[in-house]
Amino acid sequence: MHMLLSIDWILFLEKLILIAIIIFASLGIALYTTFAERKVAAALQDRPGPNRAGPFGLFQPFADGLKLIMKEEIIPNTSNKILFILGPFLAMTAALMTSAVIPWSSDVHLFGRIIPLQIADVNIGILYIFAVVSLGVYGIMIGGWASNNKFSLMAALRGASQAISYELAMGLSLIALLMTTGTLQLGEIVKQQMAPGHWWNIVYQPLGFLIFLICAFAECNRTPFDLAEAENELNFGYHQEYSSMKLGFYLFSEYVNMFISSVVMATLYFGGYDVPFLNESLLSPNVAAVIGVIALLIKVVIFIFFFMWVRWTIPRFRYDQLMNLGWKSLVPLALFNMIITGLFILWFGK
Fold first, then answer.
1. Which listed residue, 164, 184, 261, 322, has the most CB atoms within 10 A of its CB?
2. pLDDT tens digits for range 49-59
3. Which residue, 107, 292, 274, is CA-closest to 194?
4. What does each C-alpha distance from 274 to 26, 104, 204, 281 come to in angstroms?
5. Are the C-beta atoms of 166 and 322 separated by less than 8 Å?
6. Under 8 Å CB-to-CB from 312, ≥6 apart: which residues?
7. Distance of CA 117 to the CA centre of its chain
8. How far, in Å, CA of 178 to CA of 198, rounded?
9. How far apart are the first and last CA of the chain?
10. Across the chain, what does the average pLDDT equal?
11. Which of 144, 169, 172 is CA-nearest to residue 158?
């Protein structure tokens, strides 16, 4: 009873509202990212794209969602039913959980309280992101294995080995960034980039960012790394046996992953919610917070457009090329970047 009374219920309510806003905003953005993908593809291929459902085709994502919900729900007789259902939910949950440690903007002042726009400012923020990202591998593996289909299993093995390989290079590229920032806390990393006389981390870690960007493509199963969904080789990939909203969850988690990856890259390398050449201390806290959210979302939109541009421009790799790039190029490059960063810090003493 004493424990219940000692809880700050207003803080609990604040966090609950923030979680709801971030989850629904992430899902809303991911929903319209599917629409944007088709529009970008259409623009690059000189065709109109979706333009029938609603004005300018803006209701197309809702039409797609309705179509998936109305489809017949099929669970194969030979599948492991519990794991078959668990797979897509795990993929979706892992995609959304990453947003918990992202600093979306500076603090908001409401009703005499200072409300940070970050669900949890933990001091191991980057480690938390890696822990959650690696859970996504289970979503792929469980979905492919539980289907009891050899094509799905092959695609799941491909997807899992690809994710694990590129996570290694991604982790090594981040070690160099941690050496320059000296912290694992995402909020602190953003504040360092906003400090006077300090540049965004892209200036100090251009090679680290390039490695991280390539690994983000592989982590999100995006072209040219979408070997797990290579239709011409494996029919349809690890979610071949799925239908209705279970398939929708798998397809949708890719877009949520893409959105969250863009947010992480903007936060780590491009100042997060920082607006260049703007002194936020001259503005009222709430105005600065709104501007910060808009600035972060603009950076994210640029990254998402880049993801789409690459998808509709570059053909996919062969599987041996994919693994060679990960192990023979990116891992040695990340190690080299780490050594160079260490030498710079040793030489200049900061």
1. 261
2. 888 888 888 89
3. 274
4. 20, 10, 17, 12
5. no
6. 40, 41, 44, 45, 223
7. 18
8. 16
9. 50
10. 86
11. 144
Retrieve residue 232's tokens. 């011409």
- Is residue 153 within 8 Å of 147, Cβ to Cβ? yes
Length, in residues, of the chain: 350
- Tokens coding 139: 């979503």
Token couple for 282: 């001259």
Cβ atoms < 10 Å from Cβ of 66: 12
48 preceded by a cis bond (ω within 30 of 0) = no
113 three-state secondary structure: strand
Tokens of 283: 């503005």
For residues 287 and 325, what is the distance between their CA atoms, to the nearest angstrom?
45
The 3-class secondary structure across 190-240, one letter per residue, is: HHHHHCCCCCCHHHHCHHHHHHHHHHHHHHCCCCCCCHHHCHHHHCCCCCC
Q: Which two tokens stand for residue 151?
A: 């094509």
Structure tokens at 185: 């806390």
Contact 190, 103 (CB under 8 A): yes
